[in-house]
Amino acid sequence: MNNASPFHNISPSDDLVTVTFDGIEYILPDGANLAASLLEAGLRYFRNTPVSGAPRGPFCMMGACYDCLVEIDGETRQACMTEVTSGLKIERAHRDKGLEND
Amino acid sequence: MTEVDLVIVGAGPAGMSAAVTAAEIGLSVLLLDEQPAAGGQIYRNVAKADETRGDILGKDYTYGLELVTAMRSASITHVTDATVWKIGEDGTVAYSVNGKASLVQGRKVILATGALERPVPIPGWTLPGVMTAGAAQILLKQSGLVAERAVICGSGPLIYLIAQQMIRAGKPPLAIIETQTKSDLLNAMRHLPHALRGWRYLMKGAKLLSEIKRAGVMRVTGAENLEIEGDTEVRAIAFTHRGQTTRIQCNLVLLHQGVVPNTQATRSLRLEHAWSSAQRCFHPITNEWGLSSLETVYVAGDGAGIGGAKAAEQAGAISALHVAFALGFITKADRDKRAAPILRLQSAELALRPFLDRAYPPSDQVLKPADDTVICRCEEVTAGDIRAYARLGCTGPNQAKAFGRSGMGPCQGRYCGLTVTELLSQETGTTPDAVGSYHIRPPLKPITLGELATLEQTLTDETKGLI
Amino acid sequence: MEADYAIIGGSIVGLSIAWGLLKRGRRVLVLDGDDGSFRASRGNFGLVWVQGKGLKQPAYARWTQKSAAAWADFSAELGESTGYNLALQQAGGYDFYFDEESLEQRVAEFETLKKELGGDYPFEVLRHNELKREEPNIGPRVAGAILHHQDGHLNPLRLLKSLADDVRRMGGTVKCGVPVKRISKRDLFEIEAEDGTIYAAPKFVLSAGLGAMDLGPQLGFSAPIRPQRGQVLITEKLPKMMNRPSGIIRQVDEGSVQIGDSKEEVGLDDRVTLETASAIAARAVAVYPDLAKAKLVRSWGALRIMSPDGFPIYQESSTTPGAFLVTCHSGITLAAAHARYLPAWLDGSDQAPNLEVFSEQRFAIS
Ligand SMILES: Cc1cc2nc3c(=O)[nH]c(=O)nc-3n(C[C@H](O)[C@H](O)[C@H](O)COP(=O)(O)OP(=O)(O)OC[C@H]3O[C@@H](n4cnc5c(N)ncnc54)[C@H](O)[C@@H]3O)c2cc1C
Ligand code: FES
């Protein structure tokens, strides 16, 4: 996986917490926007489409496109409309579809 | 159920100024927005942005602080993280905060839900690493992130602004690939005399362009056949220019083809809408006060037609004045006296629009996507599918939706609706107005069944109370 | 264009009939309304449903069973020529009960009907634990269910698309976006569309759903139908969580869970209301508690086309022979019968099923 982030943070925060994404730990700024923080951490692809399993990542960052969907506690949520909190267990939405395609 | 004089949906410039105006007059105001802070898309996070961010984003951004501050001081209930998912004709509004649904009864409702970026269906636009230019700006405003090794593509003044901000942040885009042509600009020139009333913006545009030039960013206009490459994420973008194909390797592609009113809420209320051929989009029909075809509902700001942040702010105030008058808080004379100066400013503010609409039209490629281009991101329906449904007798988007599921996914047609209307209009040879648009029904945003189910008790209890 | 039949209304009922007529070698012209017309065919629940139908009219139960039995073959034929998979599944369906008493009451009614049908009514009662074995995700509040083995479901939108496709493929002419406003009879039936165009045919079938309320009386039909609203909710796509459909919840082949549906007498109003939507959501969550976390992505209201007794109307006009009114509520269930058996009746062939009980006369006040 390419974890070199395509984003640069001009005002990084040092109030950090740990979350997991598909079982892997990430240290993210507390209270920050989840989609932005995951992008900054080098993650690009947040979900698979339930139709073809194609990979998708945040597109609009304003809650309109639903391409940033992730699964938290069994509920699909828009990462761009969610705040980072300590201990979040995040999974790719429809990852089962992605696996079928691998 | 809580009752208030005015429910405002959307805390951008239109919503904030409506709230301030109404509250000053003495109306009880509930302002709902799904974001964690006031500001809308343009002034996103402005109250929390630090100085570095403020410097990069410029004065037009930090201006938003004034609005946010004014709002704080007034007696306004602003509920943040509130997703509005159903609006009733009678002014009841259902919204959820953190998975809990609530209902409020407004005597009047102002919808200030703003704009969306126009869909940009080109090959590869669904790949991770492709975002809208607006998304890049939100990342910068809200999270301080600047895209590195990004290419900006499309058409519209927003492209220059985001490029300038990236330059100031020390990460200039690799290239700016624009789709509008010289002849678009020539066509726009005839609106120039009128546009000169908006000279401040013209100056600003010129300044942006010279800053981009000084930074040495490659810039192409009249680009065609854009194609984003990559299998699981963006690797490059290719385009043709004067018959030559160019390929640029990059990390991110930022797309933009202008903005269009977000009509989800207004459609769900079945308000009357019309097609704007100048802006190539639908907008709800409103009078000069922003009053829609329904007596209880006003639409202010970009959601009623694209006019920009300042015009939106003015529209919010104007609608609020009319609400105050309609509810008997102020007299007609008072309303008109207060509105007159705002209306004058607004007309100057809108002077540049016709010029911009002409100079930066959406590209042919996005209005007539190739057959194999995905146009519905959620259900992965292609332009060719829609054309095939037209041959199967679909005269409008709703039958096309039934045939091919476009518009049925979680985005509920936000990023395919206009494309489907355009395609069917081309295929059937009728106007977009006659083709129409998707029926939009609640929930305006997905909510859990659990949330919806919990309302049952509330509703039955209240109905019982009434009997 | 020469046609033997003009068919007014090009949704499920009209297209099923057109398909069947084409199979009999007839030339058809289908005229359909515009994108915004009320279309039950777009808003329905996708059930091919036998249980509970015709409790007081065994002839309707039999007609429904005949259609259900014809479905497998009909769907295979449509699938073969169009390439669309209708996702037809006829492995039985449930009717859920939260209390024993109403379950028992229903069982008694079913037993009576079963006798009248000569025993052909294969249903069984599953108590909570038995049901749990079939449907592990069922919630504790469900007391039991009736499992009827003749029930099933399909993807109704793909059915609509396949019919639209196949009718054209077989040479039928289908005109969309031409709402009909007047019909008159000279030598032929003359059918005038809103845009002024006149279409003519020696016979015609009025299958315009709720549109028949206005058009029917022009040809001497009483067309005593009314709209009845059903609200339906649909979730995001979920991993498979139910094995069989029920009258109120089913998981569609694409993964979404569809939840229905109310029965409301509100006239021509197809809006969604919070009261009803939240009530049907609460009921669904009581049946399948896991649904509480599922995201509701869409909802809609659709209008059923109801006759006073809920049964179909098949009627040839007594004043202008050659004009037929066909209207029904369960157009998906009955599509197979409409495609396979109704055309013979329209043609006046000896093989025609006897549909007398479904004539309008039954509503005449004597
Ligand atoms: C909520 C709900 C759930 C349902 N669930 C099921 C189910 O599970 N199983 C089942 O078997 N059935 C079900 N049904 C019923 C089924 O959907 C209908 O029986 C069927 O769709 C009726 O088809 P139709 O063609 O007669 O009418 P519609 O689908 O309503 O179509 C009428 C057509 O006539 C056209 N039209 C109208 N006026 C004119 C005019 N003046 N000129 C030209 N064209 C005109 C319209 O444009 C339209 O295309 C359900 C219905 C509802 C509302
Ligand atoms: S990125 Fe579009 S909804 Fe989150």
From TrEMBL, chain A:
SUPFAM superfamilies in the record: 2Fe-2S ferredoxin-like
Gene3D superfamilies noted in UniProt: 2Fe-2S iron-sulphur cluster binding domain, sarcosine oxidase, alpha subunit, N-terminal domain
Highest rank taxon of the organism: Bacteria
Entry-linked Pfam families: Fer2_4 (PF13510)
Keywords: Oxidoreductase
Segments passing through the bilayer: none
Protein name per UniProt: (2Fe-2S)-binding protein
Organism this protein belongs to: Pseudohalocynthiibacter aestuariivivens
Lineage start: Bacteria, Pseudomonadati, Pseudomonadota, Alphaproteobacteria, Rhodobacterales
UniProtKB/TrEMBL annotation, chain B:
Keyword Transport tagged: no
Pfam family, one: Pyr_redox_2
Every FAD/NAD(P)-binding domain range: 5-316
Keywords: Oxidoreductase
Highest taxon in the source lineage: Bacteria
CDD domains for this protein: GlpA-like_Fer2_BFD-like
Protein name (database record): FAD-dependent oxidoreductase
